[in-house]
Amino acid sequence: MNPGCITIYGDPISGNCMKVRFVADRLKIPYCWIEVSVLTAETRNPEFLAINPAGQVPVVVLADGRPLAQSNAIMLHLSEGSSLIPADAYERAIVHQWLFWEQYSHETAIAVRRFQKTYLKRPESEIDPSLKLKGERALALMNRHLVDRSHFVADRLTLADIALIAYTRWADEAGFDLNDWPCVHKWVMRIETELGLQART
Amino acid sequence: MNPGCITIYGDPISGNCMKVRFVADRLKIPYCWIEVSVLTAETRNPEFLAINPAGQVPVVVLADGRPLAQSNAIMLHLSEGSSLIPADAYERAIVHQWLFWEQYSHETAIAVRRFQKTYLKRPESEIDPSLKLKGERALALMNRHLVDRSHFVADRLTLADIALIAYTRWADEAGFDLNDWPCVHKWVMRIETELGLQART
Fold first, then answer.
1. Which of A112, A194, B79, B141 has a CA-to-CA distance to A46 between 20 and 30 Å?
2. CA B74/CA A7 separation, integer angstroms
């Protein structure tokens, strides 16, 4: 750990962890990155649980030594006062709305299905079929929203885009073909360019 | 709808909807309440989907006619500038952390299990057993946090308490006995008193 520098504990296979990196990179916030493997259950080690009793990555330790968990809460904290959070109260509320929707209705289908399929190597027959349906509903809702929009909120990059792109750009690894949701596909390419990420789709 | 007054679309059997009422009542924000039944799938009617394409309650229509969904996003918006959101940046971040944890790790076990058990009347044998385990983990984490605390954050009532009490006070209807988590039990009674709610436990 570097005094005066935030430490991000994360796993690069986790979109939730990558969100925090996207924000730190975008806002040029210096950080140390400590790799904690989800696959080998390092998040259940006593040393890790002392930092985050919920046993989840990402977690950050701030420059003053205090911990903060939950990817979207971390992003909100790091972005305070930046253009990633709209100054207008209603636009800010709509960013919050998408952040909670992402964690409840998107991540729980697309990230969970990707983990089971790509990392646990489960055959389709052993994956809960409701995850496919739920993921398709989430992508369809995003597609409708993006029909006449460049970004999720306020026609510019906000935390809503960063939260949602994390797993959407990996949707293929979850068994979804973004060609079925063309507005989502275009939006992914747009946000990848804005964030300086290597295109995947 | 009353011009100049917010309208809350909700179902009183939904803790997510009750959260919004708890906040509006606490802050003395006048509102109209329009009942939308989850059980009869009124949230899937075209008129409702025009307000919230995600087909979920609660949703509010603000005084200027603009909609806002997601219980925790609505609470954050209604509470801006009030004591329910700490002025200190780190305390505020920890409130956000609990709000996201509630939606990801608590509601998805306790509220889902309660709905299946109490409203869909499913026998225990037909309820996914992982929901029980997940709910117990959530309650155990809350209990550890509350061992030496009166409230979740900053030793006073914040949105973290309001988000978490909504379904925790109904944990019995989900098949959990709060006597197993005595610090949670005491906290529920304390917050019910603060919010002026009739004690259930």
1. A112
2. 31
Across the interface, whether the CB atoms of B70 and A101 are under 8 A apart is answered yes
Q: What CATH architecture does domain A6-79 belong to?
A: 3-Layer(aba) Sandwich (3.40)
pLDDT tens-digit map of B112-167? 999 999 999 999 999 999 999 999 999 999 999 999 999 999 999 999 999 999 99
d(CA B46, CA B53): 9
Cα–Cα nearest to A105, from A137, A71, A72: A137
**In the CATH hierarchy, which top-level class contains the domain B6-78?**
alpha beta
A-B Cβ pairs (cutoff 8 Å, strict) = 88
Distance, CA of A137 to CA of B63 (rounded, Å):
30
Contact A93 B72 (CB under 8 A): no
Q: Which residue has the tokens 């008193």?
A: B193
ipTM, two decimals, is 0.97
Interchain proximity A105–B80, CB inside 8 Å: no
High-pLDDT (> 90) share of chain A, %: 96
Runs of H (alpha helix) within B63-122: 71-78, 89-101, 112-114
Give me the pLDDT at residue B200, please: 73
Nearest CA-CA distance, residue A110 and chain B, Å: 14
If we measure between CA atoms, which residue out of B57, B46, B44 comes closest to residue B17?
B57
B 139-158 residues inside an 8 A Cβ radius of A: 141, 144-145
B89-195: CATH, from 1.10.3660.10, 1.10.340.30, 1.20.1050.10, 2.30.30.140: 1.20.1050.10
Q: Other C-beta atoms within 10 Å of A58: how many?
A: 24
Contact yes or no for B93 and A99 at CB 8 A: no
Distance between terminal CA atoms of chain B? 36
pTM over cut 0.95 = yes
Angle formed by the axes of helices A71-79 and A159-168, nearest 10°: 140
